[in-house]
Fold these 2 entries.
Entry 1:
Amino acid sequence: MADEKAPAEEKVARPGAVDASGHPWVRSIRAALPDTVVSAKEFAGQVTVVVQKDSIARVARHLKDAEDFKYCVDATAVDWKTRDPRFDVVYHFYSFSKNARIRVKCGAADGEEVPSIASVFLAANWCEREIWDMFGIRFSGHPDLRRILTWEGFHGHPLRKDFPLEGIDTGAAVYPEEWPEGGGPSQKDPNRKVVS
Amino acid sequence: MSDEKISQAEKDEAAYFAERAKAGAAAAQAAAAPEPGTLFDVQEMELNFGPQHPSTHGVLRLVLKVDGEKILEAKPDMGYLHRGTEKLFETETYPMGIPHTDRLDYVAAATNNHAFCLAVEKLLGVEIPRRAQLIRVILDELQRLSSHLVWLGTSGIDLGAVTPFWYAFREREQILDFFEEYCGARLTLNCMRIGGLPFDLTPGWTERVSEFISDFPARVDDYEQLLTDNRIWKKRTIGVGVISAEECVEWGLTGPIIRGSGVEWDLRRAQPYECYDELDFVVPTRQNGDTYDRYIVRVQEMRQSARIVRQCLERLEAGEIRGKVPRVIKPPAEEIYASVESPKGELGFYCVSNGSNRPYRMHVRPPSFINLQALPRLAKGHLVSDLVALIGTIDIVLGEVDR
């Protein structure tokens, strides 16, 4: 790993995140939808707005119509395991006229439903399906909330922090009637994995 | 009876039948009027397209609802190549994540490496030395050429144009040789590091690349001669999969697709990274938004990429290839989104750090995945054979769709 050696070891001083409550976009959301913004920060020129979970679709609609964030870049989630609420659902929007991005987040507890923004941005449809598949967060009002990368009937949500990295014995977990416990790899097989 | 009389009777009979047929046709037409355009009953049929179909460029499965040859509905089904890359990122240190990015869009590994490194560098706040920036741009653009050449060859072959494939892969082979000479790999390059590059260029590399690049526009002319004015190619692509600029934005389509619909938007121009802001290049656009226009945009992009490589080679000076990066990479507990213009569109990495030496969450915004989402919209109403053209024009790589 000779090429992994860095030429110098030096701590890089970096300004941390600053509060962005005064940012015009945040103020615009506050003005249009009072009591929705929880907090706002700016780091490395990227604005992050944390909003109430129930108002996420309205915030998305406001950003699209009033602030010209017409392009939904991406939607994903983060599992914080022990935090309450457990998940963050993260959206990125881009505005062509401003040439700028905004990140909107909302918290979601395990088992809670988040309002879908697929009716606001068509692009969010598959992103939300992926979040459901990978994290098990349901979206209310989504037109077609099925698993997308794993198959329908898969047991578990792979990107949750408590999902085992080595995977699960999906045969036994999904089709117990066709694939009885122990019907896959032998009970004595050291590589045999079962759902914990 | 005389012959005249017989023929008269025959004539009367023929006239009668003709009249009757006319009335029958009118009645049938009237009956069919509520559902115009269907001579027979709609015979809906479900058809599995893929995952082992050669024109799906990997393991994409489409569940088609067809009426004869016409597509009523197309439902993509993917995940056959899901390897849990995002989970793997979480379990390994930042530098160990770079080889995994090679396996996302495996025909454009350099841009994947680039986007990953860019995200971590933004998080760390590291400056990249100028030489490293220029070499990164050269690698990116060579990668764009090779990716577009794969696209040109394979989507041509899908539509029956076999000849361009051999020309395109001849040039791609040379580009892969350049990569092999630089980093030892041809496909899964792993050719960038956080803060710079792993190696400096080998002696004579720049001369060889420069020779190739000066020759390249003539090669593009060759491909264009085979396809651009080819009547069959035009018939198969013009007016197929038309999408407007507004719809492109609504679906989140990026890359050559949005540029083919008339939006001059390229991350290299809109939000320049590395040294793209000082380079002179044109963002090619077309207005119609059909498969043919996306073809023209990609071909023009190849010419522009060659221009960019030439400019970078001219500017190349001796210098450092790695910035000041701590030996153990522990970014502050923040989050960042960084994206590059990959050959397919906007490739972004969303990285959440918790201050440790491993990413807490690393999400990929894959252009192929988002672009594929519009396929059902594009395919509706077209023929099954046009679907092949549409999959080609979206330019998907299933490694990136499924991750």
Entry 2:
Amino acid sequence: MTTLYTSDHEWLRIEGDVATIGVTDYAQSQLGDVVFVELPKVGRSLKKAEAAAVVESVKAASDVYAPISGEVLEVNDALADEPALVNSDAAGKAWFFKIKIADKSELGGLMDEAAYKQHTA
Amino acid sequence: MLARDDNSPLKTTPLHALHVSSGGKMVPFAGYDMPVQFASGVLREHLHTREAAGLFDVSHMGQIALRPKSGKLEDAALALERLVPQDILSVASGRQRYAQFTNEAGGILDDLMVANFGSHLFLVVNAACKAGDEAHLRAGLSETCVIEPLPERALLALQGPKAESVLARLCAEAHSMRFMDAGPRRVDGIDCFVSRSGYTGEDGFEISVPAEQAERLAKTLLANSDVLPIGLGARDSLRLEAGLCLYGHDIDTATTPVEGALEWSIQKSRRKGGVRAGGFPGADRILGQFEQSAPRRRVGLRPEGRAPVREGAPLFADASSSEQIGAVTSGGFGPSLNAPLAMGYLPTPQAATGGTVYAELRGQRLPLRVAAMPFVANTYKR
């Protein structure tokens, strides 16, 4: 299992040809208190860099972009009832959605943990 | 919010260093570098203000003394009545009233507070409008009044159910003040102007304090365990729950006080048939709207579900029609309401409480109920 990061502060946990996607702890600290999360529909085919989800704080709405292309396999329904999970456990329980990786070569442009740490330093 | 000239450096308030050292997340607002939130975050700051007390720095707002050249306060009051549709003459000494500067078309140039300090009037105006307001006052009232901006004063707001007990430790008279009482008071030995008012829907006070004493007073107030520093984020969600207008968003030069649902702020004496009816810019249009009703009206909106509907969202009469009937002017999430909430303008026939309209949000139509305001009941000590 590998965890990769985007410059937009999303994480991807890669298991075989499935990627679980969420936002980083740094992202949640910048967003502030999350009050609403809108997730993509299961079955939707996402293209890399397309707006896939919306996360809203008291103050503002932010798009979450698909870091890679693929079909949405599963979404985290717990976020509808408890959006504050994004603040309390961004890297864990607050995963957003899982996609079937369409093109593994797209992973090449992503950062590993050390590079991401440097990105947010 | 007015656009900022990006070449000009941000201004700071006398509490800027305190905000930075208290962990304030600073953002540009109306030309000032202001805290949008502190470490506890918008949600906790909002709820803490409703449960205990919050301290806000509103020193970016304009404070102006209006002194009658004749020495008679009524001359200043009558002069100001030429610029606002409110009855200023009947504001008793030690009292304050909400008002608007109007233009010839009946639109709103700014909204403000006017207090009678006995010898002069004391005005508090919006930060983004203060230069324009000063020029407007000089152009309109210079013959009768000395217009004296007070940039050397800071302005703090202490809001919430514990505000009275917190302030009373430094100013015993806090107990005896009623909502919209205003005047000079000594607070912790400092000569201040204190009003029992605010912008949160909560009981509370606004304290005008000399700039050089502001940090000491703020630190003394924050030393009380009931008080947290509050940023602009929670200030906005609190005023939205209270149904209060944000100038430049919910009211502006294109909206009249009647369209803005502010008829309550225009006293009978200035309406048709009143003892000093009219005589302010845009009177014909504004007073006409009392009789013929305005074409559109500011309303409260409660989106169904949990998704916030924000400023600019277009409004429609039903789920499919292509004709836009209005727009959201302020919207977000209400932490005390624990639900999304918004304000916007609708054609008067569709503005009745209980009706349903639709907002377009990310390509979908979302139903919103037209709701009475305030969304959260106010707790003023009348």
